Amino acid sequence: MLKAAIVGATGIVGQQFLVALHHHPWFEVRQLAASERSAGKKYSQAIRDEKTGGLRWYCSEEPPSEAMDLNVVKTSELKLSECDIVFTAIEPEEAKILEPQLAQKVPVVSTASAFRYEEDTPILIPGVNSDHADLLDLQRSKRGWRGFITPIPNCTTTGLTITLKPIFDEFGVQSVLMTSMQAVSGAGRSPGVIALDIIDNVIPFIPNEEEKVQQETLKILGSFNGNSIKPADFGVSCTCTRVNVREGHTESVLVSTVKENSVEDVAKTMRGFDGGLREMGLPSAPKQMITVHDDPYRPQPRLDRDTENGMTTAVGRVRKDTVMKNGVKYLLVSHNTKMGAAAGAVLVAELLKKKDIL
Amino acid sequence: MLKAAIVGATGIVGQQFLVALHHHPWFEVRQLAASERSAGKKYSQAIRDEKTGGLRWYCSEEPPSEAMDLNVVKTSELKLSECDIVFTAIEPEEAKILEPQLAQKVPVVSTASAFRYEEDTPILIPGVNSDHADLLDLQRSKRGWRGFITPIPNCTTTGLTITLKPIFDEFGVQSVLMTSMQAVSGAGRSPGVIALDIIDNVIPFIPNEEEKVQQETLKILGSFNGNSIKPADFGVSCTCTRVNVREGHTESVLVSTVKENSVEDVAKTMRGFDGGLREMGLPSAPKQMITVHDDPYRPQPRLDRDTENGMTTAVGRVRKDTVMKNGVKYLLVSHNTKMGAAAGAVLVAELLKKKDIL
Amino acid sequence: MLKAAIVGATGIVGQQFLVALHHHPWFEVRQLAASERSAGKKYSQAIRDEKTGGLRWYCSEEPPSEAMDLNVVKTSELKLSECDIVFTAIEPEEAKILEPQLAQKVPVVSTASAFRYEEDTPILIPGVNSDHADLLDLQRSKRGWRGFITPIPNCTTTGLTITLKPIFDEFGVQSVLMTSMQAVSGAGRSPGVIALDIIDNVIPFIPNEEEKVQQETLKILGSFNGNSIKPADFGVSCTCTRVNVREGHTESVLVSTVKENSVEDVAKTMRGFDGGLREMGLPSAPKQMITVHDDPYRPQPRLDRDTENGMTTAVGRVRKDTVMKNGVKYLLVSHNTKMGAAAGAVLVAELLKKKDIL
Amino acid sequence: MLKAAIVGATGIVGQQFLVALHHHPWFEVRQLAASERSAGKKYSQAIRDEKTGGLRWYCSEEPPSEAMDLNVVKTSELKLSECDIVFTAIEPEEAKILEPQLAQKVPVVSTASAFRYEEDTPILIPGVNSDHADLLDLQRSKRGWRGFITPIPNCTTTGLTITLKPIFDEFGVQSVLMTSMQAVSGAGRSPGVIALDIIDNVIPFIPNEEEKVQQETLKILGSFNGNSIKPADFGVSCTCTRVNVREGHTESVLVSTVKENSVEDVAKTMRGFDGGLREMGLPSAPKQMITVHDDPYRPQPRLDRDTENGMTTAVGRVRKDTVMKNGVKYLLVSHNTKMGAAAGAVLVAELLKKKDIL
């Protein structure tokens, strides 16, 4: 068993890490770090609201009992020598400072965006760009770290890139247009999306989201030559909106491919897509990277987000587009706080372990 | 004052007609028709639930008092000789049969889709294709009717076409891509969208909606040569979804123009767009056909749908697209049950009156 | 294995029966009946929308594969001789006619209200009034039926009565005041609650609901002397409202007891309440009839409805009331379409089997 | 014109004050105070998000143009000598410190709870306890202030107390039981209710709310003998919950009266209730303090909250209760951010002006 620590353990993503690592066959959570307010308390106390006695626990799964008795410390007090991997669930500004300190001693799998756009840093989605993981060796040696930092993508990038990958490999991609209808959980809880703002409403703007998705998609689908990642070379144009949905990002996608395609072939390619995951036997990997629906009323976030524990990407309405050259359209639903966050980060850790990078 | 009748007066769109015609300076509602169940009752009784005593009144405005005392009759019992115009708010299958019967004697402004795609029938949006109204003379003579049928567009077409018009005129349009996030009121109430289906959800499919919007947009922006409408010649590709919003369709639009454009010029063109409405002095016309926002968080359906009584189209986030040639992107909010339904139909009637076609 | 039939199999409650009976150790679904529109089709076809190809399947669980190949027949065509039990999921008016026809030959467990208020008919909640089941023998002989009809309570009654039972037994009940905040699924789908009506809203009235809850509560908590049920003798006063929640009725309850009570004792009594279920070993029975929370923010419908597959009643905020004599207040959440509907009816069937009444 | 200042002007309640005082015939907003972050900026800048350019404006009404050019200062920098009244919209902890400093020089009408429970401080609802205003003279002299502090009630108290008042006067009140279904706007925006928590949910607990409502109701309905307020002497028992509604608190109320009552008389008494407001001619006063509906489906927060600009309390389902002695039940909807907040505070100021206390 590898010994894991979680930084930012009392927040919503930290809690999702606890759930994702509960009864994990390879990793065991041994240390928890959080802000000064929580440090020095047992986890069960740290998430208890003193005034009301209520629990500040935000997952639908119950809090794992093994975590409740762990002591919460400040990040600087983590015993990194007793740690094989650190999962971080903190804000980008904090990540920029803390993650390099951690990475000097131990591998860091991060949900923050702080290092996503660094040249020596891959943005990993197992099955999509597993080979990019080797860039971490270079990062390590270049930075003189014993560990490394490997961030997962923005939750809106994840489903888009997973569904693009088989199309990209089979038909080539010329351009991608995407409009997202994102769940409120994507904004976290501090302060997250206020109910007042989203009841009976759509919010047409999420700061920096479109730029992130555009840049990350090209990097993830880029080619790694052993030294660096060359981003894929096609246009990506996004409009990101927020809708009144708890979990599960919906995306309306139009892809113009290089080669001719048929709707049947695109659907078949998606259905067959595996990215080598099956044979690797990663514990958190879904059986199907992509679940393609024939029912035109699918995918729906409420019905499809939890399929395969939120690790598959649900696709539907695959159909011809008549405006773009070799245009094909579809909708997808991706679980933004499972595959798109902590559980996706655990899947990355599993890949790294399998590849002996960890 | 022109004497108006409403067919389908007890349904939600019929009620919206009553509201839109309340205190109207040019039209006066004198007759109401509805199904057999309601016929023979006063309107105030017809909309009362006998079992519970509750009112089946669905508008946020109070029921106009002048309507409450009118008798409801079957459509076949309307006194068409005492009627200058009929507004219909019925299902397409019914419209196909009833509207021609009415049109033999009196002009019909319809919210149904039954006749939208007929060659001799315009789909009017005042300010966008006011000149198409003249096609009604041909319809009249060709069909041997004393009246005519003029349908308004699908509510999702309305905002899209209004915002495309100034761009089309100024820069030419090469192609249009649109993903809609439509309000539940667009589905009416029989049965409409069930709460069970839309709470915490997005529904990715609305039967026939995408085809309607694509076809109607090209017809409305088509050119009328005095004899027939030649549809505009560009690609339109839509994805129509339903979100958890009561009123106000949001649309994410990408336009590729023929000529080069700048974001500033597109916004300016939209802001200045009037379509000749201002000088016509139509009572229901908004001061601004299009309200362009600079705040990136706008337009939002809850905040912007009611601007100018729901008759303006709110636009925001006008910005460059980098994927399409001369691409420009924006979001719009259009009030689907005001400008997109009964109030929009009343505006059409005002145009016809102003043009002496009525 | 007992052979079961479901009447009303294509509706939402019928589907919930299929889910509740999937892999059931005692019952096997062998026949399905529905309306004429569905009769003659395989179940998989009967629930398919011909126009769009979409499935009319309304449970979050996938449709049980064993049901998909069954033929759907009209109720009159069920082979009752090959049937040990019929579960009905139909409207009360229909139930009034069909259920006696079925009961002449076979036991009927019904979700309809049609027979709830008959003198010779119990309203069973296993663990609360299991002994009332013996009234079915009298019903049988009195009506000359080989089977019987046993309806489950209204879904709003269920949680209230379960939580009252231990208090009633321990402290006696003088009066009960309850305000419910009911989920939209309680209204079914035909037409159910329209999204337009409940978005950003509370509906303060549900026809006949308050009367049903008041009457059923007293009957269920009544005493059975071997011949008839004598309703409990205390006041029940309800206000039933509808809120924007999919599943899970929330109820704010105030009980005035006969004997003095303490909050601790009430909570303890609820926690210990079992009603003899544990030793009976009914497959669908929850481990805890009542789950009592200390966290003042619980119970919440979204967090607590699915506990123990929706078969437990979640209680929280047990606290003293200062207005009523021996007043104690609490809130409860009960899963209205699990314990409160089909799954609750299956639990009744399990009780009847265990008691050899079936 | 009296010169008004608003403290906490950039927050949501501060903005509601600006809206409530826009074009007010008696008061003119001349000074604005807010936190250090905003101090030194024009109001239009202070509410602009620098990063995104979006407006942090939270009312559905547009920002009053006259406010946009005012300079925002720190509270300590307000020129109190140029000010006739201060409206405060700040948190209780801050109010405890700032309001006495202000009240030394100028009258303060407060939305905070800080001083509500002080002996020398009335909680005013014009029309309900207008006579309590005279207690402010004693407060003034006792504390040696030139001004005074007069807080409005908790927003959940307001509708309850208004509807109880005519019953209390006509029939006497023995006890009151209330379950509220409160709108999310009642929690403000810092952080307010997170969408994640309330989508598809009810939250059964609002800290301290029930105690506040219980205590305030008795104080407001208490009698003032010229020296002190003697709280009313009856039991009040509340359960306060949060539902997925933007604006408008719904309350399910049961009142046991001292004298016998009939439903008709209670409804009539409510309809006729005026509290002397009509003859006072206060600009913000509703025509009807209470609007009583016969339709059993009313009141609904979305349909009824905005009646009379949110200043009336909508009541429906007035009916007999059979459990309590002389029991009568009803539901009410009260606009928590109009009559229950800033607009209600302006109404208090109008009363004080009319009574020459200001």
User: CATH topology of the largest domain in chain A, anyone?
Assistant: Dihydrodipicolinate Reductase, domain 2
Shape of chain A: globular
Query: What percent of the residues of chain A sit in helical stretches (DSSP H or I)?
Result: 25-40%
What's the gyration radius of chain A in Å? 20 Å
Distance between the termini of chain A: 12 Å
Into which percentage range does the β-strand content of chain A fall?
15-25%
Give the oligomeric state: homotetramer
Q: How many structurally independent domains of chain A?
A: 2
Second CATH tier, the architecture of the largest domain in chain A = 2-Layer Sandwich
CATH superfamily of the largest domain in chain A: Dihydrodipicolinate Reductase, domain 2
As laid out across the biggest beta sheet of chain A, the strand order is: 3-2-1-4-5-6
Helix/strand-derived class of chain A? alpha/beta
Order of helices and strands of chain A: EHEHHEEHEHEHEHHEEEEHHEHEEH
Low-confidence stretches of chain A: none
**How would a textbook summarize the main sheet of chain A?**
6 strands, parallel
What value does the average pLDDT of chain A take? 97
**How many DSSP H or I helices of chain A?**
12
Q: Return the CATH class of the largest domain in chain A.
A: Alpha Beta
Structure overview:
The structure is a homotetramer of 358-residue chains. Chain A has 358 residues and is an alpha/beta fold. Chain A has two domains: 2-152 and 342-354, 3-Layer(aba) Sandwich (Rossmann fold); 155-334, 2-Layer Sandwich (Dihydrodipicolinate Reductase, domain 2), CATH 3.30.360.10. The first copy, chain A, is 29% helix and 21% strand. Chain A has twelve helices and 14 strands. Chain A has helices at 12-21, 43-46, 65-68, 92-103, 135-143, 155-171, 195-198, 209-220, 263-272, 277-280, 301-304, 342-354, and strands at 2-7, 27-33, 72-73, 85-88, 108-110, 149-151, 173-182, 223-224, 229-230, 235-242, 249-257, 290-292, 313-321, 327-334. In chain A, the strands form three sheets. Chain A has a six-stranded parallel β-sheet with strand order 3-2-1-4-5-6, sandwiched between helices. A six-stranded mixed β-sheet of chain A has the order 10-7-11-14-13-12, with helices on one face. In chain A, strands 8-9 form a two-stranded antiparallel sheet. In chain A, helix 1 packs across helix 12 (342-354) and helix 6 runs parallel beside helix 8 (209-220). The longest helix of chain A is centred in the middle third of the chain and has 17 residues, at 155-171. Chains in contact: A-B, A-C, A-D, B-C, B-D, C-D.
